Amino acid sequence: MADNKYRIEVAPEAYFVEEQSDVAADRYVFAYRIRITNAGEVPAKLVSRHWLITDANEHVQEVRGMGVVGEHPHLKPGESYEYMSGATLTTPWGTMKGSYQMEADDGTRFDAPIGEFMLCAPRVLH
């Protein structure tokens, strides 16, 4: 995607959720906030998502689904959309990465990559 006509920027931020985690049972819960910004020139709708969630043992969960948190945000150039969701691991740290499949108002379908980010419990817990 060399031209900027179709460009979506994705900014993730992850948090450890201590009150929902159970370290003794190897249950580590993480919340993440995602900000999606249409940095392109054409309005576009988020159609679906694809995640690869990898724990510290290199076990990979692949998640695919329609929309995000039950919604299909439609973003005009310059607009942003934020949502929160979560992931549960059996290890105190891991990573997430993936992509959103987008459809521009002109019918063009394209992927918006989600760069890899860390899920990490505080060191005192592990």
TrEMBL record:
It holds the Pfam family DUF525. Residues 2-126 form the ApaG domain. It comes from the Bacteria. PANTHER family: OS05G0170800 PROTEIN. HAMAP family: ApaG. This is Protein ApaG. It comes from Crenobacter cavernae. The lineage of its organism: Bacteria, Pseudomonadati, Pseudomonadota, Betaproteobacteria, Neisseriales.
